[in-house]
Amino acid sequence: MSVFEAIQANLLSPAVLFFALGLIAALTKSDLKFPESLYVGLTIYLLVAIGFKGGVAIAEAGIAKVWLPALAAMALGALIPLWTYPLLRFGGKLSAVDAAAIAAHSGSVIAVTFIAATNYLKAIHQPFESYATAFLAVMESPAILIGVVLGKLATRTRGGADMTSLKAAAHEALLGRSIFLLVGSLLVGWLCGKPGMAKVEAFFVTPFQGVLALFLLEMGMVAGRRLEDLKKVGPFLLGFGIVVPLVNGALGVWLGKLTGLELGGATLLGVLSASASYIAAPAAIRMSLPDANPTLYLTSSLAITFPFNITLGIPIYLEIARTLYS
Amino acid sequence: MSVFEAIQANLLSPAVLFFALGLIAALTKSDLKFPESLYVGLTIYLLVAIGFKGGVAIAEAGIAKVWLPALAAMALGALIPLWTYPLLRFGGKLSAVDAAAIAAHSGSVIAVTFIAATNYLKAIHQPFESYATAFLAVMESPAILIGVVLGKLATRTRGGADMTSLKAAAHEALLGRSIFLLVGSLLVGWLCGKPGMAKVEAFFVTPFQGVLALFLLEMGMVAGRRLEDLKKVGPFLLGFGIVVPLVNGALGVWLGKLTGLELGGATLLGVLSASASYIAAPAAIRMSLPDANPTLYLTSSLAITFPFNITLGIPIYLEIARTLYS
Amino acid sequence: MSVFEAIQANLLSPAVLFFALGLIAALTKSDLKFPESLYVGLTIYLLVAIGFKGGVAIAEAGIAKVWLPALAAMALGALIPLWTYPLLRFGGKLSAVDAAAIAAHSGSVIAVTFIAATNYLKAIHQPFESYATAFLAVMESPAILIGVVLGKLATRTRGGADMTSLKAAAHEALLGRSIFLLVGSLLVGWLCGKPGMAKVEAFFVTPFQGVLALFLLEMGMVAGRRLEDLKKVGPFLLGFGIVVPLVNGALGVWLGKLTGLELGGATLLGVLSASASYIAAPAAIRMSLPDANPTLYLTSSLAITFPFNITLGIPIYLEIARTLYS
Amino acid sequence: MTTHPMKLVTVVCEAYAKEAVTKLLREVGAHGYTLFPVEGDGSRGKRPADFPEFANIQIEVIVPPAVAEQLMEKLGRDLFPRYAMVAFESEVRVLRPQKF
Amino acid sequence: MTTHPMKLVTVVCEAYAKEAVTKLLREVGAHGYTLFPVEGDGSRGKRPADFPEFANIQIEVIVPPAVAEQLMEKLGRDLFPRYAMVAFESEVRVLRPQKF
Amino acid sequence: MTTHPMKLVTVVCEAYAKEAVTKLLREVGAHGYTLFPVEGDGSRGKRPADFPEFANIQIEVIVPPAVAEQLMEKLGRDLFPRYAMVAFESEVRVLRPQKF
Ligand SMILES: Nc1ncnc2c1ncn2[C@@H]1O[C@H](COP(=O)(O)O)[C@@H](O)[C@H]1O
Ligand SMILES: Nc1ncnc2c1ncn2[C@@H]1O[C@H](COP(=O)(O)O)[C@@H](O)[C@H]1O
Ligand SMILES: Nc1ncnc2c1ncn2[C@@H]1O[C@H](COP(=O)(O)O)[C@@H](O)[C@H]1O
Ligand code: NA
Ligand code: NA
Ligand code: NA
């Protein structure tokens, strides 16, 4: 299968098409709207399901196989903000706090993109390490923490207040609802193992792809509403939102190979490095760096990087992995 | 199986029994209540699932088979308000705006009745064209538009204002949430075809009938609350709500045969013609003909036609089709 | 399998582990929160599913087998408040209204514990009578009614007002949403029987255990928030919340044997007797005995009896049954 | 267009008090009310509204001044001691005084 | 810190009137509004808000007194006869009068 | 029954400002608050409340007049520049002044 065919197969999957339908709903100003509690319910389901599945996979594979690439994933989460910050600050001429906020986002990860990638790999029969969910679970916190510290250092003037909001950021980065659910379900899955999976598989695994399609319909609407902000962010961020994921994706794949992952797992680590959170990170940043401009970091991660990744990015990272592994 | 047995089998299905349970909840004033977001979530699920399945069916059957009966369905949607309007206006002595509103409702369609009919056909092993969902998707808009135009013509006095509310009605009729979801999911299903279905079947197809049963529990409660309005609507509308669906049902079956549908598909076109919306149409009418009295059109479609159709109507339309096709 | 192994198997099930995760979320003050409508949706699903399944089981088994143990269950529901009331009043030195409220709770039942018990029995391949759900459906109302009457008798001073709130309590005890849903779905299942089950099994049965796990995550959070009230209730209620379920559990098992149940069914009757409602009963009591202190009865049933039952209690009641039946 | 003075009485309380409050409203002769699902914090702890026991509502009712006084008095006497509850009144102006 | 007087106009109505009310707000020149999903009871029956037909909303808008008067007048004339609706105004004080 | 004057301070803001606002309430010494999930429209665009980023809340707090003044001042100084937010105060009357 050529890259071109791979991209086409991805574009015609229900998940991506429902995402496009959501975009259209937003652009045609249809009155379609998901109630917030439906959004929350879908999120809880997806995080618990992916975490549980990953935990069971770790129990099967044994921790010996997982710790090294997981550590690499954490390091990557912390390093990405460190290299993107100067790029944004000096290349993009952004204010310190905006640069820090966007840097935190590029280091962060988003479960939906990861899930879409696993579905894609499954669809084209490319095997992968299911315990890769562990990397999803550990990459987010370091990225957010580093980003917030960068922002605070750059704006330290009021002293005392900073410590409390750093603490709030740490609380959010470690115990915020999406990370808590993901890590917690991973642990539950780990403790349960295969016998536990047998009990709940019909709910957490079988219908999973359909739920994802419904969720992407909602995400399409949310991203669609941000599309008009593309004009506001300027050409630098536009390019940043596509080129930096490509670089980070390659970095992730390469590090995956280095730490002993197979082709599938390395692709997933690439996808994670390339992805940028538009749920957990914005919440943490809005609370700990309220002076950063949400239009910049949200548009970049939600309206540029996210659509790029789920349409073109995923097949490209796989292609990068194939090149590296051949 | 005799009509009598067919009706009995239908009445003892979980869907119809849960509808009855909902009626009882409303009549005994139990404090049972579904949160609105659960209602919205169930609606979104049902519309997306039915639309997607229909789209896949179109992809399988090929557009060549679908376009003619679909066109007939659209024509039927537009014609029904045109013949019921004078009946309501002169037979029922209703005001022009009320006649137009009720006429729009009789032309419109309701997904739940359609779904109940497909389940019924499946249960008694009567094959049908799955792409019939396409008819569901195209009948609603013409009916609402014609109804609103009739109402506007009859009450044109204030000139300018009319055009803007006609435009609002058109927007609602074409992009209102239920039509948007149905048509959009149909297109997605069409583009995905069988391979897409394989991915999401476990969510959109397997549990579908159970979700419908739960939804009908809610619909029973909503219809039950309208039951006391039966006294207010008078004997004409009571008869109208049962006789007109029978006529339209026969019309639909006949047109289905004419345009080449099999027995099952013709039955479904009959069910669609006979059904009356109590979700999309009321929303459109309340916004574009606010002077029409909701008690009249809602009671008629929700408390008379809908319960009649899902209990007795569906087996009757099938019987009509059997007679016509034998 | 020894009791110890049985308990361990239970503790490592997804349901119990997700409950623990919910406790941790509450104790670490994570901002994880389920929207109320998700909670309501999960409750509706669980009650309808369990009721429907039980009704189908009754249809299969025949009413002849069910009526005697069901009657015993009702009697048990009424008797438990009668023996626990004096214990609370004179042993625990509680006020009359508080004693009545707590007594009502110990007689009441909670679907989640029952469901967890059926899952547990299924997991260890212990057969049981599926129609046991009928006992769940009939035990709650008598317990609440007796409890409220006890409370009213003890505080009768204002005359007239009492009758109206007794009537309100009866309405709540018989038509309150959880009892209505459970009894109603039981009837629907009974009328549908096996053919109806075939239609909705994929929604109401297959994913059931997974939904339960998600629900217990929420219950863990709710129970966790009550944990700090443990200090307020004093040692008597702490002991009461564990010892009384053990006594009632043994009583239930014994009565189950007496009325002809097999080992599995008797265990379930024991679990029901031992369990205490923290949903339906508090609602009824808060409305009809508003002077009772919710901290006492809620902490007792939600933060003591419930966690005890789903972790240690269930395997213990099974062990009691094994001893009695050997 | 002339507007007329009325009182707006607002009650914030645990959801289980709904029946008791609306019964009181009927007794004093209010013609309607509006109910909000809310979250809250107060002397009886946080009410995050994710579970019936922690659910909170706000009920607003427009009534003539005399009815407002009666209502406040009964709320304070019968319901304040039993339920998590706060109540206050304020001045509003309406178009159709006969409606309330 | 000085605060400035403004009017708060509150509209409680069936959810289907949302378009009509927000259109009116734009016409009279309001700069924003806040919308609450509510339940209610009134002369046109219970609105338990579990189904679009029975859904109820409250819309609050802060406007200068002159705009409030205009708004109340139009509400009373154009929308009261057509929709389940209640409206009232009250006095509030804000920090940034130019915002409204 | 005698009622006592209090101030009701209302804050409408993006949901992400919740922590910042409730922290401020604790600082000025408020004893409770009520929170409404709302939708809205304002100078910073529509907030349809279907996604955390577009979620909107209204927080109402009853406080003595002096506290209200302090609260409004801090809101205007510390939070208005950072968050989508509107705040206003109005006069209400309560039964138990010591509660607030
Ligand atoms: N000072 C206050 N301002 C606004 N709302 C309050 C205040 N105090 C209490 N409430 C509300 O009233 C409910 C019951 O209050 P309490 O009985 O003090 O726990 C709380 O959950 C809040 O929603
Ligand atoms: N007296 C009242 N006080 C507060 N809200 C009211 C009152 N009357 C009506 N409402 C609200 O306004 C809506 C429409 O009122 P109505 O047109 O009287 O049915 C009701 O559903 C209530 O939410
Ligand atoms: N004039 C207004 N009246 C009522 N609420 C408003 C008004 N302006 C803004 N709001 C509310 O305050 C929120 C934030 O306003 P803004 O910062 O102007 O976007 C909006 O989403 C609305 O909910
Ligand atoms: Na990343
Ligand atoms: Na029709
Ligand atoms: Na019990």
Average predicted confidence as pLDDT of chain A: 93
CATH architecture call of chain A: Up-down Bundle
Spell the H/E element sequence of chain A: HHHHHHHHHHHHHH
The percent of residues in helical segments of chain A reads over 70%
Write down the domain tally of chain A: 1
Can you offer a commentary on this structure?
The complex is a heterohexamer, with three copies of chain A (326 residues) and three copies of chain D (100 residues). Chain A is built from 14 helices and no strands. Chain A has 326 residues and is mainly alpha-helical. Chain A has a single domain, classed as Na+/H+ antiporter like fold (Up-down Bundle). Helix content of chain D is 26%, strand content 38%. With 100 residues, chain D is of the alpha+beta class. In chain D, helix 1 packs antiparallel against helix 2. At the A-B interface, helix 2, helix 3 and helix 10 of A face helix 3 and helix 9 of B. One sodium ion (NA) binds next to helix 5 of chain A. One adenosine monophosphate sits at the interface of chains E and D.
Quick description:
The complex is a heterohexamer, with 3 copies of chain A (326 residues) and 3 copies of chain D (100 residues). By secondary structure, chain A is mainly α.
Features:
heterohexamer, A: 326 residues, mainly alpha, Na+/H+ antiporter like fold, 83% helix, 0% strand, globular, D: 100 residues, alpha+beta, Alpha-Beta Plaits, four-stranded antiparallel sheet, 2 helices, 26% helix, elongated, binds adenosine monophosphate, binds sodium ion
